[in-house]
Amino acid sequence: MTSIDLRSAKRLVEAIRLEELSAVEVVEASLRRIEEVNKDINAFITVNAQQALAAAEKLDEKLKRGEIVGPLCGLPIAVKDVISTAGLETTCGSKILKGYIPPYDATVVARLKEAGAIIVGKTNTDEFAMGSTTEFSAFGPTRNPVDRSRVAGGSSGGSGAAVAAGMVPLALGSDTGGSVRCPAAFCGVVGLKPTYGSVSRYGLISYANSLEQIGPIAANVDDCALLYRCISGWDPMDSTSYRTQLKEEACVKDGAKIAVPREFFSGGVEDVVAKRVWLGVEALRERGYVAEEVSLRSLEYALPAYYIIAMAEASSNLARFDGIRYGLFLKSGYRDWNTYFSKCRAEGFGPEVKRRVMLGAYILSAGYYGAYYLKAQKIRSLLKTEFQQIFSRYDLIVGPTMPTTPFKIGEKVEDPLLMYLIDINTVPPNLTGHPAISVPVHREGELPVGLQLIAPYFCEERLFQAAKMVEECLRG
């Protein structure tokens, strides 16, 4: 059988619609590729082979009858294992949810199915999305397809690696402080954190409600845009979803201005990263953009503010996991609920989750709430104000996605502070709610480097336009 290239979603959809390929053939190719490489990369926690093939057969029958199928017609897609999928185990990369099978689909999953996509499996993640390398998964680390001795990024490392390794053309991740953009940058693919409220969070198992968004990962900008358009839009099931989303239709004209914050290039940014990102900026200049250096002074405080807020929200959100209603269940023999609850969480949660829950509880405790949490929220307000001031004069903000190229597995896992510092450039858009995209700017044979573009609220199309220009200029 001729091998099927799974790196272009648009080409696959066209081939299926023209009956050059069947949905079954495409899904079978995806499952074969998963079987070939997943044992080494560990991108998938659960593979949904039987249900995926059955869904593909039904879709092929619809096409034969001449029925209209959506824009993701027959595409195999991977879903991060923090997003609920009806009838398919959802673990959040944690022992405490082992065996949990949701009774409902997340809104984004329902929209994927309506668009004709086929869920082939659930991807690996740092436990409860708490991490930047996918090393904090109860199911082992995900390895980078570019260099399997290196991290794939996190927490959506499984989704990034699945796309980069050609297992699927598209994947969903979630982004709380860079968890879509980090693996996109480290694996050499495209990842978008949408505007907060533009994509439904219903069915996303929460880590930090006010920060996280579900976002698409793809091998190229066009496919990332295609997936975003299918999952975005108001959802009455999500109270954080915007009913009126003023999405920009017009393209940015010649002479559009880009702000390049100096602070994005400080704080340990590797020379090779800075060099490649500046080549991306020059590519945009060649296409008519005007790039100017600026200062975003509040960026200095963004990372500590982010971790204070995220840990506080995590300590509250994870209180629901008690080992009684779902997931991990310990054998009887405990005399009281408190002992059982404590023992279950001690066995079910990994070290990073425990660290963040305990720190979050401390931050919210009497005497420290004002000293830490309220100050962090004030910094968040300052950052939003400064971003809005920048966007009153500039169309986009640009900088490195990650300060380094992907590092070796195990290199930073024993030093939590060093690990947290790699999020320095990705957390600001989560605090402010602005959309941000990571697009590759490295050349073939080099370790991946991502360029991050940030836009005003609901200006995702502006991001896609600029990212496409970078992609075209620096491809290969």
Plain-language structure description:
This protein is an alpha/beta fold and 476 residues long. It has one domain: Amidase signature (AS) domain (Amidase signature (AS) enzymes, Alpha-Beta Complex). Helices cover 39% and strands 12% of the residues. It has 15 helices and 11 strands. The chain has helices at 9-17, 23-41, 49-64, 107-114, 157-164, 181-187, 221-231, 271-286, 302-317, 337-348, 351-364, 369-391, 416-421, 427-432, 460-474; strands at 44-47, 76-80, 118-123, 170-175, 190-193, 213-218, 257-261, 290-294, 396-400, 436-440, 450-454. It has an 11-stranded mixed β-sheet, sandwiched between helices. β2 (76-80), α4 (107-114) and β3 form a beta-alpha-beta unit. α7 (221-231) packs antiparallel against α15 (460-474) and α8 packs across α15. The radius of gyration is 21 Å and the shape is globular. 55% of the residues are buried. The mean pLDDT is 95.
List the helices and strands and how they pair.
Layout: H1 9-17, H2 23-41, E1 44-47, H3 49-64, E2 76-80, H4 107-114, E3 118-123, H5 157-164, E4 170-175, H6 181-187, E5 190-193, E6 213-218, H7 221-231, E7 257-261, H8 271-286, E8 290-294, H9 302-317, H10 337-348, H11 351-364, H12 369-391, E9 396-400, H13 416-421, H14 427-432, E10 436-440, E11 450-454, H15 460-474
Parallel strand pairs: 2-3, 2-4, 7-8, 7-9
Antiparallel strand pairs: 1-3, 4-6, 5-6, 5-10, 9-11, 10-11
Helix pairs in contact: 2-3, 5-6, 7-15, 8-15, 9-11, 9-12
Q: Which class do the helix and strand fractions yield?
A: alpha/beta
Within the largest sheet, what's the order of strands?
1-3-2-4-6-5-10-11-9-7-8
Kindly state the mean pLDDT as a whole number? 95
Instruction: Estimate the global geometry from the Cα principal axes.
Output: globular
CATH architecture: Alpha-Beta Complex
Please indicate the percent range of residues in DSSP E strands (runs of 2 or more).
Answer: 5-15%
What is the distance, rounded to the nearest whole angstrom, between the alpha carbons of the first and last residues?
29 Å
Largest sheet: 11 strands, mixed
From the alpha-carbon coordinates, what is the Rg to the nearest angstrom?
21 Å
Order of helices and strands: HHEHEHEHEHEEHEHEHHHHEHHEEH
Under CATH, the topology can be stated as: Amidase signature (AS) enzymes
